[in-house]
Every structure is written in C-alpha cells, then in structure tokens.
Amino acid sequence: MKILVTGTNSEFSRRICLIISRLQPDWKVETVESGKDCLATLLNGYRPDIVLTGMQLSDMSGFELIKHIREDSDMPVVLLSEDHNVELLVKAFEMGANDYMTKPYRDAVFIARLKALVRRRAWDIQKGGNEIINYELPEGTKS
C-alpha cells in the first residue's frame, strides 16, 4: 500500500511514519510538507492508496487540500487532528474526507482504519468501476 502524508509538522510526519513502519513495514510512505507539494505530487502521477493530511498546512487548510483533491479524484483522504470538535468532524466529511481521526492515535486502530478504508475503496471499484459519483441530498432532506 502507498500512503502520502502531508504535513508541515515534522513530528506529525515522523509519528505517522513510525506507526506505519513498525506495524506495516511493507507499506510505502511518501511525505510532503505543504498542500501545494501534495497536489503537485498527485499531478505528477503519484497515485497513493490514501492521502493523510493534518488540519493546518503551511499554505492551506486540510479542508482546502481535500477540496482540491476532490476536484479531480475520489482517492481516500484522511484528516488527522488534535481537535475533537464535532462541527469540524462534520465539516471534514462534508468537504469529502473519508475519515477523521483525532489524537491520541491508538496505533493498531489507526492501521486497522486505513486497511478498512482501502478495502471499501477496492470493493467500490470492483462493484462500480472507478467513477466519481457526486450527489447532493435535496434541500430539507434529513441525512
């Protein structure tokens, strides 16, 4: 599995890489420092199975990065945060995040959630092709 980690905090990236290398040594992890670097990496043809991003990057928010990724791709994106605010969690999903994880991360649970995300993605592709399907609920509809 290929993971692209986007974050300006070297401790953030180091911690994520440590968890993955310890529990899943066969996974490949690439790190970039900014949202623009992430987008450039994707535009240059790198296709990770998952993009992990922090909430605040040096040049944009994690929400903005997700918005840009969703313009061209339905690849799984996970937002990692220290904030347990329910409104931010809801906003992350509304912006297109596939998951939202808050610190502290339990290492085994972190890895299990990434594996589950990739399984769901593989199943979606197998069942419906590699299509991006965007739909909105009608106004006034309860979700």
Describe it.
- This protein is an alpha/beta fold and 143 residues long.
- It has a single domain (2-128), classed as Rossmann fold.
- It contains five helices and five strands.
- The protein has helices spanning 10-23, 35-43, 62-72, 86-95, 107-128; strands at residues 2-6, 28-32, 50-54, 77-81, 99-102.
- Strands 2-1-3-4-5 form a five-stranded parallel beta sheet, sandwiched between helices.
- α2 runs parallel beside α3 (62-72).
- The radius of gyration is 15 Å and the shape is globular.
- It starts with a strand and ends in a 15-residue tail after the last helix.
Amino- and carboxy-terminal Cα gap: 33 Å
Main beta-sheet strand count, sense and barrel state: 5 strands, parallel
Output the radius of gyration.
Answer: 15 Å
The level-1 CATH class: Alpha Beta
Globally, the shape reads: globular
Structural class: alpha/beta
**Helix/strand order:** EHEHEHEHEH
Beta-strand content bin = 15-25%
Oligomer status: single chain
Query: Count of DSSP helices?
Result: 5
CATH-defined superfamily = Response regulator
CATH topology: Rossmann fold
Q: Compute the average pLDDT.
A: 87
Low-confidence stretches: 131-138
Task: Give the topology, please.
Elements: E1 2-6, H1 10-23, E2 28-32, H2 35-43, E3 50-54, H3 62-72, E4 77-81, H4 86-95, E5 99-102, H5 107-128
Parallel strand pairs: 1-2, 1-3, 3-4, 4-5
